[in-house]
Queue: 3 jobs
Job 1
Amino acid sequence: MEILAVFLVGLCCVLQSNGIEVEASENNGCQNFQPHTFMLQEKQSYRTSFHFQPPRNWLNDPNGPMWYKGVYHLFYQYNPYGALFGDFMIWAHSVSYDLINWIHLNHALCPTEPYDINSCWSGSATILPGKGPVILYTGIDANHCQVQNMAMPKNLSDPFLEEWIKFAQNPIMTPPDGVEGNNFRDPTTAWLSHDGKWSVIIGSWNNNQGMAILYRSEDFFNWTKYQDPLYSTERTGMWECPDFYPVSVNSTDGVDTSILNAGVKHVMKASFNSHDYYMIGTYVPEMEKYIPDNDFTGTGMDLRYDHGKFYASKTFFDSVKNRRILWGWVNESDSIEDDMDKGWSGLQSIPRHIWLDRGGKQLVQWPIEEINKLHGKKVSFLDKKIDSESIFEVQGITAAQVNS
């Protein structure tokens, strides 16, 4: 069989993250990244050049992405001691000016207190008007129970936000009656509601229902569980890493998470059964109810962000370019032995601009425009005939990776 092919091959640049390596310096019980020399790719097999990765070890959920004082921030679940998921998970922290080239900072949150001594699990960042960002995160406490905690920057004038202070009154939320201690995690970005109160949802599972438990607060410090979940269903498993945000019905622009008007619909996303599912619907703040246009069915008809390796995703509103950006964890399919041999496992997806399609039925995604920075020299081949099982050498470029 012969194939008539048209090749467009682009030489892509590698990430310019100033060549970071991990060094074992102790700080609050964690190893931290320290600037060092260029990391040679051959030191760690099969590392990517375009997707976000830490210098080494295990990575999973993206946490608390945001823009603050000219800098993009990405926190993420990380095991500082190995290439596998561990019993001592932390919030690692990296910053960027363009979402392409990243600077790896010292870790933001490490297990140090009774309320998070067995790991700092996933959560979100909310920027409070006039007060700056606040992190809400799940701690695994001394009894291995999942509780919700808060942390604030030590120095708001530091655009890198390199130091974080845990709230003295943590935990601020504990599993409510009827919810088991291992089914209460992953607080979302909070939003300011119609009555001036803050709202946040926590992923859970109770009475054979996956759900978004709703909490409300007047001051962001003292939280009260609302009488009913914002949404629940019997057609899913445990809800992990829920996300709840508005999308414009008339524009591809993103909107702030606290926007509530007739010009938006709301997306409810939950991670379960190894995939990320979402619904488009209407949020009724006066009733604190979410009414989906189409409920989860537990079938292949449910809407998904991605049909590949993509999980525990998180969006944020980029106020600089008026867009909502989606991050997702891309898990590895390698064996445990291979991951340990490589010295790393997991990466983040290419960040995606996300918006509502014209029909209002589903979301549209596209790689952020900054990805074009990775495109370099282009080599084209027109009407080139390639025989089956033959080898064709692309000349004129030198690169470990190309786009085709």
Note: Helices lie at 336-342.
Job 2
Amino acid sequence: MSTSTPEAVKKLLENMQTDLRSLSMECKKKFPPVKEAAESGIVKIKTIAARNTDILASLKENSSEVVQPFLMGCGTKEPKITQLCLAAVQRLMTHEVVSEAAAGNVINMLWQLMENGLEELKLLQTVLVLLTTNTVVHDEILSKAIVLCFRLHFTKDNITNNTAAATVRQVVTVVFERMVAEDERFKGIVEQPTPVQGNTNRRSVSTLRPSAKDAYMLFQDLCQLVNADAPYWLVGMTEMTRTFGLELLESVLNDFPGVFLQHQEFSFLLKERVCPLVIKLFSPNIKFRQGSSGAASPAPVEKPYFPICMRLLRVVSVLIKHFYSLLVTECEIFLSLLVKFLDGEKPQWLRAVAVESVHRLCVQPHLLRSFCQSYDMKQHSTKVFRDIVNALGSFIQSLFIVPNTGNPAATNAPAVLYIYIYIYTHTHTRHLAMSV
């Protein structure tokens, strides 16, 4: 149902007056200033309703005054009053009658409630309603809303933690969806953006429009946080895990490849931030050898960490799948790493995860054809295609050579699966190579 129909507008005005009366009654004895603000709000609403003009536009124009009683109500920190006020603010947001200034005041109020540990689930719900129903929040206010969600993700309460994680994912998606919509609105307008030079730490990118700038700053800071560096835009972050950061990076790269292919600034982030980060985080997996110990080597080698490695390989798969044409040199490095992870001296779980990643790539004929053309068919290039096939063959053979010391049912099933993958991949790629 539309929120701009006469019936919906009439219902909104009635609900707002009811909310303000309830707020006035709740604050009558303990919080007289809030009571007075609520009564003034009722008068304001009646004045707006009496005008036979665009009521929604008038509400938005006066939204800072309209929401003020509810912000004051939240400032009381009384649970019942706070819940009433947040519900009223959400109703205003749903009807898109919140201005940029009013939205900034709301975010500041939510931040105060977050710092006091109050109504955490309601806070997340309010942020999500604001960002999904309106496009008035940008720049520092948007970053503050995102940081609020991140901070609630790292609370000790499991329900809040999981809800905040889902909210962060949705908010990140919304930021990039806004950019896609913005690009669509300006489709056909030719611009000549200035290429970004070097590893810039600028707080904004002058060549990008508002929504694109927000998306750029967000993605740049995700890279910073995964790299354990301080963010430039998400000021106030107190905690972050690499696993969650890598999941967010993978989601953005997989869901919005056009953003990175169409904008030079985002292509820059791919080449200068994402690829070096992935290679750096893969370092423990490259150096580690199965059975090696700190006593045998002069410098103990950090063991590969399964959660990080699994997510890194997913990111690599997405980079190769969507951005191969942009990252030919980088993809050569990634593919060589995958081959190294199939080495017999690597942990068995790492080899298994690497096989899965290789299989995701090998079921896409256009990628295999590109591998042959870009690498194997060039005289001084790595024979990536050949190395993948040989590594898979060696991996399958090792499954029969290594004695079965565990449960037969537990080891034979993976062997059958990997044999199928190898046969399918080997047959498919050989046919493809001949066609090239």
Note: The two ends are 55 Å apart (CA to CA).
Job 3
Amino acid sequence: MILLLSFMPSSPRFLLSKGRDAEALWALAWLRGAQADIRWEFQQIQDNVQRQSSRMSWAEARDPSMYRPIAIALLMRFLQQLTGITPVLVYLQSIFHSTAVLLPPEEDAAIVGAVRLLSVLIATFTMDLAGRKVLLFVSAAAMFAANLTLGLYVSFGPKSLTRNSTVGLESVPLGGTEQTLVTPTSYITLVPLLATMLFIMGYAMGWGPITWLLMSEILPLQARGTASGLCVLVSWLTAFALTKSFLLVVNAFGLHVPFFFFATICLVNLLFTGCCVPETKGRSLEQIESFFRSGRRSFLH
């Protein structure tokens, strides 16, 4: 990272905020390419930097153009964690130990990690082609299907003979129903691995990277620093609370209950994306801020 950052110029906004206009113009030209016409964008950035130099007042904070994008960003961070990504990754091997799986849990976890890497690469190359909202819809739908499948498998599928070897989920009652004890050689025991792969793939293609990107795009320029910090705080407080309570819920109600809860949250994410999240593909930061200031629900209006 140090090596790569040595080739990266400071951002035009930072340079303008320090009064280094010539360097800012050069940095913007470097970022956009030699053939790009950057005069209009440079002027827009200058105007916004001048407005950002003043601290946001409480009266400004109550303006919909300020609190609406901040509220959307906060809810995105909150809902992203409620999909269950952090506890699933933390307890991945233990979850596989607690269910009947065909492959060793360590190999299952390694496969899931490889799928996550591949999915992030796919999202990187498609988010500017398909758009943010399309990938968020696909992501939430995939995570819903995966969580629902895992919940049903834990409730009604075969139960592993090797539950005593689990780490951290020893007392997990798998669904509270009578289940057939099987040696994990049947192909049905591939379901937990395939469903977890689908869950990780869905998350890594949308609600993982795109929510961070959207946060940086929609937050008001004047409140970006404070609002970004608040979003990160909400994200990791939610992750901590969810991971801390995961075992308590599992041991009290069964491993299926968290998966059904996560599936419900994914449905909420679908509604939230359709009703509240704007499509920002191809829009500059200034255009996005103007969109919220005008109070429109779509860039098409």
Note: Residues 162-168, 170-182 have pLDDT under 50 and may be disordered.
